[in-house]
């Protein structure tokens, strides 16, 4: 350090340190003071969670990777204007999402800045985007806001997979701040679920992503609602690249779709639906119209979204495609590419629950043994029975079909960059057992 001794900044700091009384950094802060700080900054509610809380154990590694000195997580919510979110004019709903999202990020930054003035280190990841897109299609967010909010007592997850605040309902956006000190008092999860299980979200979802029994089809929701985010944007770019001229492009992407992509690029990516949030009546501040005039509520809020004529984006031969055709024949179905293509074997195995199409698995009862060799070596068992999916490390039970594959070749096969027959001829992919089960497996995970 001696080479820095004569630097003006170093000299100033050492002079200041020598003249000031030694202050021992605080290792714990008062919960009431911190809560007041967050509410004054604009949060509508706030809760605190210790880093070692069991409910967020599966998030701990990612949290510490983002901010290693984390001791406490501050979770807070900001309310949205309900009628905007409910509007069939999705431009209004999206403006509300983006405006409140900006507010969440601003509040988080303001809190961290104030904490820094008190000698407390803080870290505020984005409410939504931007994220770590170099990890796509894997986990691109630094902190999972929903499980932290639940642990902080700010609500419980409804069957639509949104956090429902006991007072504000699901018309909230979430923020999380990581700090390097403990808090005197931590919050616990609330002891009931505000979700009414009224199934209005089930009836309003245009792609059938939410089932009455609580099953959630992630890929159906992702493909349509997030059409202009991430994978859908990539699909649009690939359509441009593959089109010979503007006429061929126009046959695949109409003028309204092109304008919508431009709008998303210019003003923030737009959600195509989020109808599950729009129709949810849960929450003390929200429930009155549903209880006092239920028929009018359904007529005013639910029916317009169900009746809306719009384009619904689906992966070919998916459960969503069959659902839209049957349930909403007045909505136009458009087939698009599956953008949830794994780039690693870990991603393939970990992502299967998100792309599993249980309606297409009817009648299938089979055990699959996967053995991957080469760049990524591992063994796994995939069990599909009674329209459920189970994935285990290693080989368990007796396989109906055993698949041995070079990991890179398998990933290229999934991305349709490798011909399966050619891979079999070159023995880069080998099978043992009932080959008809490979076709049945593919139907459960349409590309």
Automatic annotation (TrEMBL):
Entry superkingdom: Bacteria
Gene Ontology MF terms in the entry: iron-sulfur cluster binding; metal ion binding
Keyword annotations: Iron, Iron-sulfur, Metal-binding
UniProt keyword annotation of Lipid metabolism present: no
Methyltransferase listed as a keyword: no
Stretches of the chain forming a coiled coil according to its record: none
PANTHER family: IRON-SULFUR CLUSTER-BINDING PROTEIN (PTHR42827:SF1), IRON-SULFUR CLUSTER-BINDING PROTEIN-RELATED (PTHR42827)
Protein name in the entry: 4Fe-4S ferredoxin iron-sulfur binding domain protein
Taxonomic lineage: Bacteria, Bacillati, Cyanobacteriota, Cyanophyceae, Nostocales
